[in-house]
Amino acid sequence: MTNKVDQPRVLAVASGGGHFVQLRRMRTAWAGCEVHYVTTSDGYRAEIAAEETDGVRPELHVVPDANRWQKLRLLRQLLAIAWVVLRVRPDVIVSTGAAPGYFAIRLGRLIGARTAWIDSIANTETLSLAGQRAGKHADLFLTQWEHLSVEDGDGPRFEGSVL
To answer: How many domains does the chain have?
Structure first.
């Protein structure tokens, strides 16, 4: 994939399932950008391959799936995401959740990328664990539930929902 000089490079990161569905629903927000998706499922490859804008197709990077109880797998996931972040060198990182997004936001900040965390709509009563941790490090921290938003700027804002 070639990058035009004026095209921002976006790394859109989410675990598989609902997190990735929500992330994909925001894709018009990065129209005209060089886009790299990161997820835990290779099953999205055909969907991503079909998406092409101005002759440029987004790239899909698949990382190991893991959860907080699988420490070794989390380490493998972290290393895989670090490799993607260092190779892609995104200008912006956007995530709708879980561990891959947390790692990408933390690593992205180290290389100067702007970051946005949009907590999953599935978290109706409290923020997700990854959201609680990633939100502190994101430039933009959003919740999709108004009652979970925080007015003082030390928590997520509500700007609407993806679904």
So the answer is: 1
